[in-house]
Amino acid sequence: METGTKRIVAIVLIVVIGIGIGVGAWVFLSQPESKIKYPGAPSSRPNTIVIGFTGDLGEIQGDGNYEGGYFAAKTINEAGGFEVGGETYYIGVAKEDTDESNPALVTSRGVAAARRLIYDREVDFGIGGFRSEALLAYVEEFMDAEMIFIDTGASTDIFCQNVRDDYANYRWFFRFMPINSTSLGGQIFNTLGTYLPPLDQAYPNHDILQVGILAEDLTWTAGLVGGIVYYLPLIANGTSMALYGVPMAVEVLTPILYDVSLSAADMNTHLQTLASQGADFVIPLISAQGGVLMMQQYSQYEY
Predict the structure, then answer these.
(1) pTM reported for the whole predicted model
(2) What does the alpha-carbon distance between residue 93 and residue 70 come to, in Å, rounded to a whole number?
(3) Complete DSSP assignment for 64-92
(4) Quick one: which of 97, 121, 100 has its CA closest to 49?
(5) Is the fold of 10-16+181-300 the same as that of 23-175?
(6) Those residues with Cβ within 8 angstroms of residue 267's Cβ, 6 or more apart along the chain or in another chain
(7) Domain residues of the chain, as ranges?
(8) Contact of 99 with 68, CB cutoff 8 Å
(9) Of 4, 106, 266, 299, whose Cβ has the fewest other Cβ atoms within 10 Å?
(10) Which fold has domain 10-16+181-300?
């Protein structure tokens, strides 16, 4: 980078939490009015399969999880449902609020939400999950009921490790997304190996070597932060980001771990700290609302 110009903080968006396939179409659909909805299904539907959605309603990941399922059910039902054993079935959807993105997490709320879906709504399958600490508590309700639960948001390794270690009890658990935290770490190294060397070469008067970490102080980031701090300098200084093969003296700055209750001002302070430390590259280990907040501050103050 030329002398006197503003340093660049290049942000790589590593973690993107999926928020449902139907978000874009949700504006065209009416909000559900009852506890179980059968969107697009005929009033006469002798055979149904009801899917229960867990999530923090009113937040982008919880709403997106349900809205995507609602839209998918509507599409299938309007197409005539599906057949099982020669019988036509239609899909119903129900949702319960687990409040799992609340910074002051109360895991019993998620447990109660799961129980309402299982025993009051009598759903056939469960889909959801976002915050690992919450899902660890309420997924047990689905396992005890021997009901398939599909994780669509919590990445911590322990969920699938439970299946490996105790298959008899956890065989009902499946994770569709995201990939687990360990694999996310592998993606980080691959991404850095792709972008760090060419960026460094693009600015001949400035070495792009300072890597910052901005992370939620939660279970899912713990292993990722430790792995990046330890392995990134070894990888960069050794085979040097494999793709380009030129050793780089990468330095990982002291990670910034923040409480998820932070304000916009707090986030801006963290970004200021990274800029003042000379970060050339920032790895955000952030999900959902935190990612939105980070990018709002990043754009507003032109870091």
Answers:
(1) 0.75
(2) 6
(3) HHHHHHHHHHHHHHHTT-EEETTEEEEEE
(4) 121
(5) yes
(6) 258, 293, 294, 297
(7) 10-16+181-300, 23-175
(8) no
(9) 4
(10) Rossmann fold (3.40.50)
List the structure tokens of 256.
Answer: 């910034």
Kindly state the tokens that stand for 237: 């200084």
Residues in Cβ contact with 30 at an 8 Å cutoff, skipping those fewer than 6 apart:
none
Q: What is the pLDDT along the chain (303 residues), one digit of tens a residue?
A: 444 334 444 444 333 333 333 333 333 344 444 589 999 999 999 899 999 999 999 998 899 999 999 999 999 999 999 999 999 999 999 999 999 988 889 999 999 999 999 999 999 999 999 999 999 999 999 999 999 999 999 999 999 999 999 999 999 999 998 888 888 888 888 887 787 778 878 888 888 888 999 999 998 898 889 988 988 888 777 654 544 556 677 889 999 999 999 999 999 999 999 999 999 989 999 988 889 999 999 998 887
So what CATH class is 23-175?
Answer: alpha beta
Confirm if 9 and 282 have CB atoms less than 8 A apart: yes
